[in-house]
């Protein structure tokens, strides 16, 4: 099964073990890209994966 191209803010928060507010801060600072679908905010999975890879590369 392939991963969906989008993830919810809660899924991103759960994956990083941080609060939803922390994810919104990453969105507001353009570190994560997101789209609005109706009234819902969705994180672009490729953006999340790139952010995570960058964190791991920098060791932070």
UniProtKB/TrEMBL annotation:
Organism superkingdom: Bacteria
NCBIfam families: excise (TIGR01764)
InterPro entries per the UniProt record, alphabetical: HTH_17, SinI_DNA-bd
Protein name as annotated: Helix-turn-helix domain-containing protein
Annotated Helix-turn-helix domain residues: 6-53
Gene Ontology molecular function, alphabetical: DNA binding
Pfam family, one: HTH_17
Organism: Nocardia jinanensis
